[in-house]
Amino acid sequence: MRSNHLRRLVKWLLVLCGLYALFTLATLNISTDTHIWLASSAFLLILLLSKNMSTRATSFILIIGAFISFRYIYWRFQETLPWESSLDLPFAILLFVAECYGILVYIMGMFVTVKPYERKRVPIDTHATIPSVDVFIPTYNEPLDVVEPTILAASRLDYPGVCNVYVLDDGGTVQKLADDDVDAADQAKRRADALKSFCAEVGAHYITRERNEKAKAGNINHALKHSDGDLILILDADHVPTRDFLTNTVGLFQKDTNLGFVQTPHFFVTPGPVERNLGIEDKVPSENEMFYNKILLGMDFWNGCFFCGSAAVIRRVALEEVGGISTKTITEDADTAINIHAKGWDSAYLNRAMVAGCRQIPSGRMSRNALVGLKG
């Protein structure tokens, strides 16, 4: 035990010495030729190391980036700020502060992602208590051919315990059905009736409310009062889950009784508008890939995952302890995650794509009868 503490102390001393050496090198007064030589060497090192994606190689690349950034800020402060001009100085300082902020965000990102954590699935222990699960599918005005595949897939999830599917229809509220626009009210009623009928056919529960208050967060919080599952799986209306979603995630809650929520990646079978308009969907990874395959892996190492609004399982006790989904901001998912962490709950990220998001069925519209026919 003492040797472990000693090794850890030595490790942190080496880190501090490295940071001090980095600071010293970054503040040296050197010639322009030396600047060019350092920049060229750093660029070549990054090119060579980028072929090796090990943790050590990645860490060294990030350290090189931090060194270049510190060196640049030092040069900007020492050489470029117009201290002699009282008119130009305020604007120059504003630009300098903006650059410092950008570099600070980079350093924080480097710190978070320096050690990604590839978490493994934990099988459900059928000999232990199996928690009950409520599947929430919030919907507002999505077309039925978008919502129905999600409802059907959710109702066919493999799970050895009790699992109930709830469709939270904010498109069929009393407020929507009593709209002053007669055509809008009639359209909402026809959609709500069709959705109710489909839910009855596939064994899902249909829930709506009086008024459309607090958007998606309010919709989920309303459903919390009408359900009692130990765990809650939240799926966006266009996020079709795989059959093994619960069998891959619930075991994590059995293993860690302090686990507040498990987030999984959002995966889309159709390109985003930027990729589609530029024609780069097959050439350049989307921003979605960077967040779910890099950033969240690093955040999981620090027990700091985000709840991303869908494709996540949340422990009911943790969610109720923070008053439900946050309604104080439009980024209610991230705010809810912060609230859950603040109460001492843990989080987990399982980097296993188990939902398929799509704004329309790729093979064309799937009829409602065909969907019901899949239930066997």
Would you mind describing this structure in some detail?
This protein has 14 helices and nine strands. The longest helix has 26 residues, at 55-80. The chain has helices at 2-26, 32-49, 55-80, 89-113, 144-155, 174-177, 182-202, 215-224, 245-255, 273-278, 287-301, 316-321, 332-342, 368-373, and strands at residues 133-139, 163-169, 205-207, 231-234, 239-241, 259-263, 312-315, 346-349, 355-357. A seven-stranded mixed β-sheet has the order 3-2-1-4-7-6-8, sandwiched between helices. Strands 5-9 form a two-stranded antiparallel ribbon. The chain is α/β, with parallel strands linked by helices and 376 residues long. 52% of the residues lie in helices and 11% in strands. Helix 1 (2-26) runs parallel beside helix 3 (55-80) and helix 5 (144-155) packs parallel to helix 7 (182-202). Helix 5 links the parallel strand 1 and strand 2. The protein has two domains: 2-113, no CATH class; 133-373, Alpha-Beta Complex (Spore Coat Polysaccharide Biosynthesis Protein SpsA, Chain A), CATH 3.90.550.10. Mean pLDDT is 85; it is low at 359-376.
Features:
9 strands, 2 domains, disordered C terminus, alpha/beta, 376 residues, Spore Coat Polysaccharide Biosynthesis Protein SpsA, Chain A
**What percent of the residues sit in helical stretches (DSSP H or I)?**
40-55%
Instruction: Give the number of DSSP strands.
Output: 9
Q: What is the class of the largest domain in the CATH system? A: Alpha Beta
- For the termini, the CA-CA separation is 57 Å
Instruction: Figure out the total of helices.
Output: 14
For the biggest sheet, the summary is: 7 strands, mixed
> Element order, helices and strands?
HHHHEHEHHEHEEHEHHEHHEEH
Strand order of the largest sheet: 3-2-1-4-7-6-8
The radius of gyration computed from the alpha-carbon positions, rounded to a whole number of angstroms, is 26 Å
Q: Outline, from the CA principal axes?
A: globular
**CATH fold-level label of the largest domain:** Spore Coat Polysaccharide Biosynthesis Protein SpsA, Chain A
For the residues shown, what is the average pLDDT? Answer: 85
**Class computed from helices, strands and strand pairing:** alpha/beta
The number of distinct structural domains comes to 2
Share of β-strand residues: 5-15%
